[in-house]
Every structure is written in structure tokens, then in C-alpha cells.
Specification:
The chain has 8 helices and 17 strands. With 346 residues, the chain is α/β, with parallel strands linked by helices. Strand 9 and strand 10 form a beta hairpin.
Length: 346
């Protein structure tokens, strides 16, 4: 299993940043020791779709790779927001991939057993709405037979679908894995339970992390649907009532919880859509800490971390991570960042 090969939990590292900016280096199994009784950990239980489809642009006969990037209507597989690449594969860096042939509304794409039609371009020559011409059952069967996980050049060998599923994977609505969840295993969950630390889940349709185009990347993340179960909303209210912290496993959980929050920091159960970016100016209402992967400045995931820590802290953090050889990407090391202490000026 490739994920296991790239995620050696015994050697994986954890970089912890406290609310006051203090930093420490730990083996990742020590994560349990950084939380306390009454805290609540929330993870994304979305499974990942085989969202990369190779095929042919019928009008030109040229090869094309289509990456499904977002739902038009959640759990409706007939229409997706998609992005296209031309010749090449994931072993070429995304930013170096060839563009697709010129795309126009009405173009047909032959994608293995599936046929898709470009409904319209979305203000970018590589971004479009794709409609499949088969019924739901045939589309899901075609994705399962022909689709591959979206992947990038840092892992050259092809990934299987189970490589991008966390141990919690349930509803297949994500386009890329909620990869912070790779740090979780049943031993860690048992340790949390023994220490009086709560655990709950939500489901968030994690989207693409990179398009290869700087201007298009500025539009990431796309709108992402989520579902917060009643039991999770109730667990959040209970944890806050006793002074416990809400610890999000990954940026997708932060987006879902902050989107579902009311003005007082309560979380509404049910379905919703996370829109826009979380960044430096965002005042977090629910989440007190985030466990995430090692991200690079400029990435949308890194921009979200600006809601947790001051830029000076993040700059120092990035320098230390580079100097210590922390591994990035979805199969890398982890960071635990507590929300910065805000100074009251009253």
C-alpha cells in the first residue's frame, strides 16, 4: 500500500505551535499528549473519488486529462466542475503540464467508458462544467473502472484508490483526500478516549489543491459542500460548555465548521456549502487548533493558517520546518497549530 510506504508513522514528525508562538518538535505519536480532557477532535470522514479521467478530445483527436474539481449539485454525478490538461501525466509537475486542446461549449470528451460534454467554460480556458451523458449508475461504474486518484509529481508511482482513503473514509464525495486524517489511527483514537478527549466527524467534499495555473489557483478552494451531523454539533456545544478546545483535523474541517457557525460560535447541524477563503482577516468562531500537513507559503492551505498564527510566527515556522527537513504533501509530516492569543484593547 503506497500510502503506508510514504507515511511511516514511527518516523513521522509533529511540529507543534502553541497559542503564544512557542514551538516544539515531537514524534507524531506524541500527539495524544498535547490534548487534554474535555477537548474535542473533529475529522473529515469523506472518501476520495477516482477523479482523474484520461481520454480524448473528440473534436481534435488530442489526448486530454480531465480532473473533476467540484460538485455542481452534491452527490449528483451527472455534472461537475472540471479542469483539463493536455499530454503528459502526473509525473510532470502540474505547473509544467501541457495545456489541453482549445475547448469550446458542446465539445465531447471520450473518457474511457464515459462520454462527457463541455456545457460551458467558467471564465478560464481550462475550467469548465462537464456533463456526463450516462445515468447515475453507469457514471459511478465508469468512474470506478476508469478513474484514478488525482496525484502530483512528488509521488511518481501510480496511486490506487485505497491509497488516498483515510481510515475513516465513508461517503465518497471528496476530489482529493482530506489528508490530515492520514495521521489518525485506531491506537491514537483509543489514547484520546482514555484521556477523556472527545472525537467526532463531519463530511466535507475536499477539492483540488493545485491547478498548475497561478491565476486559477487564486480561485482555490472552490465551493465545497459539507454535512455536520447532529451528534457532532451537540458534541461541540458540550465541549465548549466545559471549556474544551475544538481541534480540527485538516483545513477542510476548519472550512466546514466556520461556515456552519453562528454569530456566537455555535455550530448548526445539517448540509451547507463552504465558500471563499479563510485567511489573515478571518476571526475564527469555532476552531481552537488545527492538525494539518506541512504547507508552503502561497498555497491556499497555508493562507488558512494565517487565521491561527501571526505572519511572524508562520515565517519562523516555515524556516524551521525547512531547516529540519519536515516532509510536505499529503503523505508527509504534521503540524499542530493553536489559535493565537488575541489581545483585548478594551
Amino acid at each position: 500500500m503506497i500510502a503506508a510506504d510514504h507515511l511511516d508513522r514511527r518516523s513521522a514528525k509533529l511540529f507543534a505551535v502553541a497559542a503564544d508562538g512557542r514551538m516544539q518538535h515531537l514524534p507524531r505519536p506524541e500527539l495524544a499528549s498535547l490534548l487534554r480532557a474535555g477537548d474535542l477532535v473533529i475529522a473529515n470522514d469523506a472518501a476520495t473519488l477516482p477523479a482523474s479521467l484520461r481520454g480524448v478530445h473528440c473534436a481534435s483527436g488530442e489526448p486530454i486529462e480531465v480532473r473533476l474539481a467540484a460538485w455542481v449539485v452534491v452527490r449528483d454525478p451527472t455534472r461537475f466542475v472540471a479542469i483539463a490538461f493536455g499530454r503528459g501525466d502526473h509525473r510532470t509537475r502540474t505547473e509544467d503540464r501541457a495545456p489541453p486542446p482549445p475547448l469550446s461549449p458542446g465539445d465531447r470528451l471520450s473518457l474511457g467508458p464515459l462520454v462527457g460534454v463541455i456545457e460551458h467554460l467558467r471564465a478560464h480556458p481550462r475550467l469548465f462544467t462537464l456533463r456526463f451523458v450516462r445515468d447515475r449508475k453507469a457514471i459511478f461504474a465508469g468512474l470506478a473502472r476508469h478513474g484514478r486518484p488525482i496525484q502530483y509529481a512528488h509521488v511518481p508511482e501510480p496511486l490506487a484508490l485505497w491509497d488516498v482513503w483515510t481510515r475513516l473514509a465513508a461517503d465518497p464525495i471528496a476530489f482529493e483526500p482530506p489528508s490530515a486524517g492520514f495521521a489518525l489511527d485506531w491506537r491514537l483514537l483509543a489514547a484520546w478516549r482514555q484521556r477523556g478527549i472527545g472525537f467526532a466527524t463531519l463530511t466535507h467534499a475536499a477539492g483540488m489543491s493545485s491547478t498548475g495555473d497561478p491565476m486559477l489557483d487564486l480561485r482555490l478552494p472552490f465551493d465545497e459542500p459539507y454535512r455536520v451531523p447532529e451528534r457532532t454539533a451537540a458534541a461541540i456545544a458540550k465541549a465548549k460548555a466545559v471549556g474544551g478546545r475544538i481541534v480540527a483535523i485538516g483545513t477542510t474541517v476548519v472550512r466546514a465548521l466556520e461556515s456552519a457557525a453562528d454569530a456566537d460560535g455555535g455550530v448548526c447541524a445539517g448540509d451547507g456549502v463552504a465558500r471563499g477563503r479563510i485567511g489573515r482577516e478571518t476571526r475564527l468562531r469555532v476552531v481552537d487548533a488545527i492538525l494539518t500537513g506541512v504547507h508552503q507559503p502561497g498555497e491556499s492551505h497555508f493562507e488558512l493558517l494565517r487565521a491561527f498564527a501571526e505572519d511572524t510566527v508562520l515565517d519562523r515556522m516555515s524556516a524551521v520546518l525547512a531547516a529540519r527537513g519536515y516532509r510536505g504533501h499529503e503523505f508527509g509530516d504534521s503540524m499542530l497549530i493553536a489559535r493565537r492569543t488575541r489581545v483585548s484593547h478594551r
